[in-house]
Amino acid sequence: MGRGFVAQVAGIPGMEVVVAADMDPKRAMSAFRETGRDPIEGLSGTPERPAATDDALGLVRSPTVDVVVEATGVTEIGARVAYEAIQEGKHMVMLNAETDVTVGAVLGRMAESAGVVYTGSAGDEPGAIMELYDFARSLGFEVVVAGKGKNNPLDVSATPESLAEEAGRKKMNPKMLASFVDGTKTMVEMASVANAVGFSVDVPNMHGPAETVPKKLGEVFSLEEEGGILSGYGTVDYVRGVAPGVFVIVRSGEGAVRETMQYLGMGEGPNHVLYRPYHLTSLETPISVARAAIYGEPTIVSRPVPSAEVVAVAKRDLVPGEKLGGIGSADYYGGVYNVAEAEEMLPLGLAAGARVTRPIQKGSVVPRSGVEMAGDSFVVDLRRLQDAALRQ
Asked: What digits encode the pLDDT tens for the residues 211-235?
């Protein structure tokens, strides 16, 4: 993600990446060299000579930086970097939806108080869905469902080890691939959308029906009494098919609007599908950078009170004394619930580093009371602050 962002920005007048942080600064330097730049080590980057460092917080504090983009997918790092950026008066663009669904509500409040923008990214699926949602609402449509396609089979037992060969072929981090295949990434992305627009999930972990024809989604995601699968509207969901597309389903009333939608090939109604067949991930992130810096606008941000929670579900039997790995590990995968149902469940973004205190069976949601949180975790502390603010 970071490498693609650096390459795309190189062709955009008026925007420059002046410093990049990576655990291995050589990777950041390589990304700059691919764009024809001659980078230096450290934090004193310029548009002509960008810098590469392993000091992420030093990057955040650099006076040459206006906007920080976070692309690690690690909640502990994402929370710390976002918090520090806001404290430093920098706009914050998150390509780290895992952190956003864990502490995005409190980070959004902090950013608003500080007079800066905290936002998810254009090009990431939540941002792409939000653009469709905003477009539909601007036209006066009622949006009843928001969703995305999943482009690989769902296997909740997937591990970095079982996907090592495929990850090698695709030049991907095995943990990242595992988080896609086991459904965690889909749960995270749709929770992010739900929290931004105030939607719920119709059933835990969503329905996830199979469908490859976008125009049919309006029928699939209609109410049960209308022949569909939903018990109610105002929900997020995903489809095994139509990937890598995103969609929203809108409703029209009888009369001129519905007749026009029919004439335009948008179906008979009352449900119509607005579908975008692509999202360009980090290549679109510069749009969010520009919106934040120039207009002070977010692309997508959680409401102050989240409506969905992504929780940890055991991939295997967990034994007391074990320390849980990170997202995409062999220990757990993500499931999404409405916030009211998830109060006693362990949020996905707090699981890494937690110590199991009682047996937890494979396939069971990990309870908060079944683990001891990492004592030195910044994201855990920030989540406690968010929870306390919501109780007020």
From this structure: 999 999 999 999 999 999 999 999 9
The DSSP secondary-structure symbol of 346 reads P
Distance between the two ends of the chain, CA-based, in angstroms? 38
* Residues 117, 149 share a domain: no
pLDDT tens digits along 186-212: 999 999 999 999 999 999 999 999 999
Does residue 194 share a domain with residue 291? no
Which H or E element spans position 26?
A: helix 25-34
Output the pTM of the full model.
0.95
Q: Which domain holds residue 353?
A: 308-391
Listed in order, strand segments (DSSP E) in 151-242 are 200-201, 235-240
CB 130 within 8 A of CB 196: yes
Strand order in the sheet with 271-276: 200-201, 235-240, 142-150, 246-251, 271-276
Final residue in a domain of this structure, among 228, 262, 295: 295
| Residues 134 and 244 both lie in one domain | yes
- In-domain check, residue 28: yes
